[in-house]
Every structure is written in C-alpha cells, then in structure tokens.
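Fold these two proteins, one after the other.
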Amino acid sequence: MQEILTDIIVALPAFLLAIILHELAHGYAAHRLGDDTAQRAGRLTMSPVAHLDVVGSLCFILTTVLPPHKSFGWAKPVPVVVTNLRNPRRDDILVSLAGVAANLAQAIVWAVLFRVAVMSAHTTGPGLAVTLARFCLIGVQVNIVLMVFNLLPIPPLDGSHVAVRLLGITDPYAVTRAAPLGFIVLFALISFHGFDALWGAVADPIIRALIGL
C-alpha cells in the first residue's frame, strides 16, 4: 500500500501539470483563432480547480496502481464553440492538436531534465539523482501516454476532431453528438485493458527514444 501511495504522490504533480497545460493550449489556441469561450469561462488559468474532472482523476489513480502502470486520465474539456472560429474546419484541427503539442513539448522538457539528473549523479549523489530521474521519467511517461491517448479517433478525444475534419464532415457538432458512444467505447477499453497493446506498441518506443536523447 505504501508503494502505491508513493507512486500516486510522485506522479500527481506531473499529471496535474500535463492536463492543465493541455487544456490551456486548447483554450489559448481557440482564443487566438477567434473563439473566446474558454477565456470567458475562466479556463485560461493554471488553477487545477478550474480543470480537474472527477472521473478523469479517478482514472489516473486506477491506471497508476494497476498494470501496466501507465498513468493517464483527463481534465474537464475546455469549451470551444467551433462556429466562432475564423475557419472552423482548419481551426478545429489546430485547436485539437494544440493540446497534443503541449504534451509532446512537456515530454521533451522532462526528457532533457531526466538526462541532466542522470549525468549529475556524481555531484548530487546516486540517491538524489535516482529520485530526480524517476520523477522526470514519470513526467515523460504521463505526457506521452496522454498524447497517444488523445490522438485516438474516438469521440470526444482530440483525434476524433482531426479525423472528422479531415474526412470533410462539415457538421460542427459531429464530435459532440458522437461523444456518448465514444465514452462507452473508452470505458470498455479501459475496463478490459484494451490500451495495453497500444502503450507497448506506440507509447513505450516514443518514451525510450526521448529518454535516450
């Protein structure tokens, strides 16, 4: 039990930062592209209270303690009114990919810090270096798993917005209409460990490549 609590405590800061910056990126991109809904809703903030989702946070705890121990969850989606965007088809893709890009950028920063921690072992001592490296590695893992997860073309994930627009579907609310079915699919995959193969085939190679920088 103590080891499980330690894993959650260590992973929680990285998870909070990952989802907050992910949602901020969505909101900021939407604001720059013509929709100020997120700003008016008070979502362009670093406060975790504004972004936390109860179910997404619970999912984070469960995926941290259960095999394959790839922590992921989700925040409260930033409200975006697609019809307010200057070019709805193009800008919906850009807003969706902004969150994914934020996770990739964070993963790269964590990977660089991981290498710094490893190389500093001779000055900080092996104990502190291992602790710092572990924390940074979790930062890489959380962000890459979130990135891969959000790229899935399952509503309401970011990848579904990209897929819908690339397919030429012009209904601005297509993803919203399909979201209830998408949630059922997601929970089924989570419940039956349907993402395990995805983590092994996609997320793990990216993580290994990053920490090998």
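Now the second one:
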Amino acid sequence: MEKRPESRVSADIPVRVWGMDADSKPFFQSATAGSLSSEGAQLSHISHSLKVGEVIGIQYGDKKARFGVVWIKPALIPERYEVGVALLAQQTVPWEDVTSGNKPELVKAPAGSEKRRFTRHKVQFPIQIGFPDNRRSHMHCSSTDIGGRGCYVESLVPLQINSNVIITFWIDSEKISTTAIVRASDPGVGMGIEFTALEGHIQKKLQAYLEKIDQGFASAASQGT
C-alpha cells in the first residue's frame, strides 16, 4: 500500500540552526521553521549556503535534533535561502508538541483580550538603534524579522539582555521612534528587541506597511517566473 503523504502544520516557529556551510565553515544562526511534520520542515531566513546531503542541527526550545538537507533554493531576499530538511534516523523532531496539536496557546488569544497577534515579516527593514544616555553612537542596521511588537536584528556582538534602547524607523515619509528593550541576545547571531511604547495605531500602520512590502516581493517573484 502506498504511504499517504504526512500532513504538515503551517505554523512558523523560531529555531536555532548550526552545522557546516557549503564552504565547510561552521555557522550558527536563528531561523524560522515552517511546513512542520514529524519527519522534517522547511527553514526560512537561512543566511548561509548549504549543501544537499549535509547534516545540520536544529533546536526548538530546549529540544535538539539532527537533520539532513534535502533541498535548498534562494529566497526573495538577497543572500537568504529556504532549505528543506528531513529528520535523521533515531532522532525525534524538537517541535513534536506543535505537530501533535498540543500547543493551542500559540494561536488562540485569551478570551476578552484586546491584544492581537502581530505577524512577523521576514524582510530587510532598515532601523536605527539609539541609547537613552546619548553617549553611544547610533547603530544603523536592518531588522531581518519585524512585526508590530518587536524585531530581530542580526549582529555578531548583540547588546545584553534588558538593555534599554530607542528604535527609529520610517513608514513612507513618517519618522517613528519608540523606546524598546532587548529581550534575547544570541552572541554571534543577533538580538530580539521588544517595542515598549509603540502606540496601537502605529503598530497597525507598521503591519500594513510590512504586508505591502511582502506583497511587492510576491508580485515581483510571480512576474519573474
């Protein structure tokens, strides 16, 4: 009897990935895993070229496993890749709770809550990181994962957790600034930053702007095929 294709979960989850790249250099980075199943996943936002057949490690939460690279293709963002991975024998996927449906809190908001779940967009979005005391130079960089409540910035030397910063960015011709705090710091990889004073209507405006950018990428991709 032919084996039925296994159903996949479309939820995106944050993971850490490490191994050897196509140039045989070690790498370690944050990424996103989607199209989840008990046998593999699709990785997005990979910034290193990998080889098909290479073995890499993936961590979700406190669980790790080894996977083989089965395919790789360029993403819409320059120097980024999407990678298909398959679980190696004798390994258990780190996201087993997600694929078994035991994690409804990720998608279901508390009853009566006015907070909406803001989609994170994997786009290169220029921002400026400043500091309250003005004694340090501003950092001009690009967020690689951003939504209405925060962003992730790649950096070899990220700021320490709980560092207070001021994030400035532009929405069309409008300059936006907000206080923020570093919630995650991954040496050699980057940092996760939470916006702490971004008003609700600005959050929604940012989300709409990011969705427009995403649609622009999708349109450009369809015209090029």
